[in-house]
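Can anyone check this?
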Amino acid sequence: MNPIVKTPRELFFDQLRDIYSMEIQLCVSMPHLVTLCTSWELRDLMTKHAHQNCNQIAEIAAIFKRHGESPGDDKCKAMAGLIEGGTGHLEAVPSPQTRDLMMIAHCLRIEYYEMAAYEFTTLLSGRLGLKSEPAALSELLAEEKEMAMALMTMEGDLFAAANSRV
């Protein structure tokens, strides 16, 4: 169970722990999600982002280390729900093209959740006057935004391909 958060600094590390847990869960779940993709482009994009997620874990761990804090082992229940719910739906879709489109919807939900977490934590780190954290977290946020944009761009192409087969 999480300790009671009493100060903005404690809130920053609480939020960072949530992000750390999110990234670990994604790093673990992404290989399975990649196997559900039919489109080679989508599979490639997700594989690259899975590597980014794993690198993000190291960056977040470094922030904890710089401040003598621990990432802990709490599990972000919201991310667990997003992953579990979306994966269950994906596995039930028989049409490969429709499943790829659903994968994009699933991943966008995850990306926007991550972006909200990174946005707030980046803002909070700046308000706390932390030295290198705002830039580091902004860089991670930019990666999430790039992934969301790539997914949105890919959606149009995959929709056209799926719709032409109907």
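Reply from J.R.: I decoded it. The CA atoms of residues 24 and 57 lie 7 Å apart.
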